[in-house]
Amino acid sequence: MRPRGGLGPGPVWAQRVRQLEQRARTQEERIIALETENAALHLKLAAYQGWAGRSVNEILQLYSTHGQQQKLQRSSLVTHLHEAIKRLKQDMKSLHSFALELSKDFQRQYKACLYQILTAVQGIQLQNEAMQMFQMKAFDLEQSLQEVTGRYEREKQRRRALHNSLVELRGNIRVHCRIRPSLPFDHAAGHSVSQERHRNSLENVAYAIDDETVLVKCSRPGHAPINKTFQFERVYNATESQDTVFADVAPLLTSLLDGYNVCIMAYGQTGSGKTYTMLGPQLEENLAFVNEDESELGIIPRATQELFRLISEKPAGSYWVEVSVVEVYNNEVFDLLAKDSCGKVFGIKRDVVTTREGKSDVPLLTYETVANASEFLHLVIKGLQLRVRHPTLVHAHSSRSHLVVTLTITTIVSGDNFGTSWEDEQINQRLNKEVSCSYPQKRDSRSTSSSRASSPAQLEAAEKLKQVKTRLQLVDLAGSECVGMSGVTGAALRETSCINRSLSALADVLGAIAEQRSHVPYRNSKLTHLLQDSVGGDAKLLVMLCISPSQKYLTESMQSLGFGTRARQVQRGQIKKRNLPVLSKTK
Ligand code: ADP
Ligand code: MG
């Protein structure tokens, strides 16, 4: 169709056509461009698709290789495992065989052990039987040993009793020897002593080899060796207690109440244990001791306890006990119980005289009546205090003086009770000389006694009664050491020479009695004069030798042992007994 109007339709259309054609061309160009772009894109797509294809292939390849690798790995693991299993199986096999071997071996060994055990058990059974046999034998032996020991002990006791009777019959002096333990003060060295000599001096040289023998064994350079034994009635070693020592002394106290005089005397050098044995440790210095340890008490306090115990078994009032305490210092006798007008105790010098009957006596000596052991101890302690404080005593050392504690036991005997035989008559005659006819005779107005009878009836009967006195003398001698005179002067020299003189006088007296000389020199010293009746008379005399064990004191120990040996040999004739009736509590 053609356009209408001024320009006619042709040009418009033509323009329009051109426009359209233009547009068409533009469109076409665009289409071409797009197609080109499309193609390019196609190309790109194709390229990409190619890449993608390749990538897929690669991935697939990778997958396959990965798969293969995994397969490979798996298969190698499996083979490894297989191999390991194989090896394990092999190991198992070898282990199994080893275990088999082992169990076989074990079985073998087990059998062998079982066999051994069985033989051992059999052996043990056999041994058990043998052991039982041995046990039975041992039991039998033990029993027979006990029997033998018992018999031995009984025989020993019998032998001792026989020996004691023999000693008594012969009038021998009993000698016991006590070896004290080594003590710290033994170790103090002297100034001039060399180390070597000091060491040697500490060695023990005196031993108790049994309960009757002392052995002194010593070899010193420059001296002849010593190997000597000494026999005594009893020997105590260092471990033996005060109890044991007293047990052997106690029977003498029974004799005392049976009418015998008794004297117990400690002999030995200073420090050898005389005071310890007689009184106990430190009794003199420390008076509190007495109550502290009863087991340490010495012979004097124990003897008194025992004496009062024995008296307590007798009828009341039939015995009473008086005490005197005397010190012999520088050949003078001091009465340690003497009192002044105010009642104060002080040591007074006394004399020793010989009575018409030939007995020794100390006129004016203080006798205190005591009713029990503690009263006695109280008195002795008072006396001992005085001994220490004695004005003339230069050395406070107790061993510078001899101490004599005397207990006089007076027994009331009715005239009817005296024996009637000729022998009794003889003794009565002898006794009557020393028996006073009034009862009770009080020697000291201050003394009191609960054991004394005092009723009028008894006093009336006094005429008929007689008193028999027996005496217990307890002596702690001064140290027996022979101190070298050089370097000792003045009072010490006098003391030492007095001690030496009195102890050698004692030895002389014993010598004279042993040789049965007509004259016994009792009066050569106050000590022997005072102890005359005990040493030479009819007392049962026990000398307690005290010995220090160490070499340091060898000379003194040998001297003491020699003294004891000589004392033992003294024969004084049969010990006489005062004629006492047998008193019993029921009487
Ligand atoms: P002495 O009186 O002979 O000079 P002592 O009796 O004073 O000697 O003894 C000297 C020291 O030895 C004291 O300290 C005493 O206690 C001690 N002593 C003596 N004998 C014994 C003993 N058997 N056991 C223990 N100590 C003892
Ligand atoms: Mg002493």
TrEMBL record:
Transmembrane segments: none annotated. Residues 172-570 form the Kinesin motor domain. It is found in: Cytoplasm, Cytoskeleton. Keywords: ATP-binding, Cytoplasm, Cytoskeleton, Motor protein, Nucleotide-binding. Residues 435-457 are annotated as: Disordered. One of its GO terms (biological process) is microtubule-based process. GO terms for cellular component: microtubule cytoskeleton. The keyword Electron transport does not apply. InterPro entries: Kinesin-like_fam, Kinesin_motor_dom, Kinesin_motor_dom_sf, P-loop_NTPase. It comes from the Eukaryota. ATP binds at residues 268-275. This is Kinesin family member 25. It comes from Gallus gallus.
